[in-house]
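To illustrate the input format used throughout this study, we show a single complete record. The first block contains the structure-token representation of the backbone; no residue identities are included at this stage. The design step must infer an amino acid for every position from geometry alone.
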């Protein structure tokens, strides 16, 4: 009887521990993606050797913006030439033929259809090669509280050797968990910046498989 009880306790403990571990690994996988994106993008910047700090804001307002409504039109998606003229990044050219990147398209549609949480980022979950600083929208508005040209001077005085203001979103995953997609945006020195949907291939050595630019300044 005692042995049976010990086996039951062990089994319950094992199941409970597995559930916790699965929850932690899923959360960790999102931050692992953040680390990949941040490191790959910044290492390709011309001034990467001068960048020591990343100032990051969580982006949560995509339930209103960048809907990419054309991607919900099946006739539009089937016309690969038209699709290529609008979204060149969503087309693969194989043997001279245009083929829609269905992984990228489906993840974009999934991203735009889901509500995005206001759950704050956790600084300690990042494992980037750079020093991480999290910033709120309220703090950004305070730094850029007027239209004078010294706003960016004020920002870089507070965050020296930083990349600028980075925005990252929630992450959506493909069913097989190989691919995922997020929004990444950055603003630097006023009119220097851009926003992108980034497709990640977790099994590739180069993690950023593709990206779709949606704004630039």
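Output of the design step:
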């Amino acid at each position: 009887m005692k042995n049976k009880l010990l086996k039951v306790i062990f089994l319950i403990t094992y199941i409970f521990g597995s559930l916790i571990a699965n929850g932690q690994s899923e959360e960790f996988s999102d931050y692992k993606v953040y680390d990949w994106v941040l490191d790959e993008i910044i290492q390709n910047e011309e001034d990467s050797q001068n960048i020591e700090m990343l100032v990051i804001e969580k982006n949560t307002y995509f339930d209103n913006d960048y809907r990419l409504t054309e991607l919900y039109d099946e006739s539009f998606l089937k016309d690969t030439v038209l699709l290529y003229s609008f979204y060149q990044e969503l087309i693969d050219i194989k043997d001279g033929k245009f083929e829609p990147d269905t992984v990228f398209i489906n993840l974009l549609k999934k991203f735009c259809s889901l509500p995005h949480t206001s759950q704050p980022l956790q600084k300690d979950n990042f494992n980037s090669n750079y020093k991480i600083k999290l910033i709120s929208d309220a703090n950004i508005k305070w730094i850029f509280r007027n239209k004078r040209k010294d706003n960016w001077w004020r920002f870089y005085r507070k965050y020296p050797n930083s990349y600028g203001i980075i925005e990252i979103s929630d992450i959506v995953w493909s069913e097989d968990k190989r691919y995922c997609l997020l929004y990444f945006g950055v603003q630097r020195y006023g009119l220097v910046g851009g926003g992108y949907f980034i497709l990640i291939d977790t099994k590739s050595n180069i993690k950023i498989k593709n990206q779709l630019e949606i704004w630039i300044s």
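Structural context for interpreting the output: Residues 5-28 have pLDDT under 50 and may be disordered. DSSP finds six helices and nine strands in the chain.
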